[in-house]
Amino acid sequence: TWTIGNIAEDQIERVRQQIGDHRAICALSGGVDSAVAAAIVAKAIGDRLTCVYVDHGLMRKNESVAIEKAFRESTGAELKIVDAEKEFLDALAGVTDPEEKRKIIGREFIRCFERAEVEILGDSDEKVAFLVQGTLYPDVVESGGGAGTSNIKSHHNVGGLPEDLEFELVEPLRELFKDEVRAVGSQLGLPDEIVQRQPFPGPGLGIRIIGEVTKDRLDILREADAIAREEMTKAGLDRDIWQMPVVLLADVRSVGVQGDGRTYGHPVVLRPVTSEDAMTADWARLPYDVMERISTRITNEVSEINRVTVDITSKPPGTIEWE
Ligand code: XMP
């Protein structure tokens, strides 16, 4: 019979046969798919797998540390952290166009992987022959069963790997749906923190700041986003809501009043959605008391933000992210 337990065993065995005694590399995005794929391959080939996690400075508050810790503890896999905040922010300086931002972020990811590969190999004359990807069944279907990467994921860090690296792909989740991937992840001992994680885009907060991306603006957004996420978790809404981007309208200011004084700050937008697969989405009817707590806390605790708004547009016509 077809159970989650033997799906995992079966995939581990298949990966073992595919890779043999070669080396593999896996780009961890922090998301559930790449983490589960990595966990399967780690069980199959042990320390001949190196996972690479690029910290581009566009992650949410405490996120990189939490992902690193949770992943290391639960898989024991070799994990290489590439600290590339400066490179990413320098490359993004002065850029406001969303597509331009995405291209720059994709390009910087490529550079990080190239550097990581060189470091992993050191002086050895071995090659990293295999690349692990967390491609799911819906991705395969959307791409017509071809290369295994869909349009939605074309911006993803893995999708941006240079073609001339000539890796053979290892895709142990190719036949699975998201809920099965989560079940396999739990079976392999990954914590809920990873397995139940809501989707978060590869370009991170870089596409949630409308206007130029700077360190200061990222810090403001990180604070607001952390408050929103904390209140959503406290209200027990994490499983009901597909995801809730918080977007900083960094190029917009509005007049407000706080204490005795006039303020001239920035708005943030809450973008809570429900969805089955992110192809379409409905705006989520958040409880008023939860919205109230988020609004009060953000405007009290983040001095640069003086207005909190809620996006009530479905997809279509709006996309989930603002950029
Ligand atoms: P949109 O904004 O197109 O987003 O409605 C659909 C889903 O995809 C996520 N998303 C991305 N994920 N790299 C990713 O890995 C990206 O560049 C990217 N852009 C959007 C988004 O968060 C939502 O879940």
Task: Kindly describe this structure.
With 323 residues, this protein is α/β, with parallel strands linked by helices. It folds into 2 domains: 4-195, Rossmann fold, CATH 3.40.50.620; 208-310, GMP Synthetase, Chain A, domain 3 (2-Layer Sandwich). It has helices at 4-19, 32-45, 63-75, 85-92, 98-121, 137-142, 178-187, 192-195, 215-234, 288-301, and strands at residues 23-28, 49-55, 78-83, 128-132, 168-170, 246-248, 254-258, 261-270, 273-274, 282-283, 305-310. The strands form 3 sheets. Strands 3-2-1-4-5 form a 5-stranded parallel β-sheet, with helices on both faces. Strand 4 (128-132), helix 6 and strand 5 form a beta-alpha-beta unit. Helix 9 runs antiparallel to helix 10 (288-301). The protein is globular and about 70 Å long. The termini are far apart. The chain binds xanthosine-5'-monophosphate. Xanthosine-5'-monophosphate binds next to loops. Homodimer. It is an enzyme of class 6 (ligase). Catalyzes the synthesis of GMP from XMP.
- Beta-strand residue fraction: 15-25%
Give the helix/strand class: alpha/beta
User: What CATH architecture of the largest domain do you see?
Assistant: 3-Layer(aba) Sandwich
**Cross-sheet strand order for the largest sheet:** 3-2-1-4-5
Ions, cofactors and other ligands present here are: xanthosine-5'-monophosphate
Q: Termini, distance in Å?
A: 44 Å
- N-to-C order of helices and strands: HEHEHEHHEHEHHHEEEEEHE
Q: What is the helix tally?
A: 10
> What percent of residues adopt helix (DSSP H or I)?
25-40%
CATH names the topology of the largest domain as Rossmann fold
**In this structure, how is the largest beta sheet organized?**
5 strands, parallel
Q: So what's the overall shape?
A: globular
Radius of gyration: 20 Å
- List unreliable stretches of 5+ residues: 146-160
Name the CATH class of the largest domain: Alpha Beta
**Strand runs, count:** 11
CATH homologous superfamily descriptor of the largest domain: HUPs
Mean pLDDT: 90
How many individual domains? 2
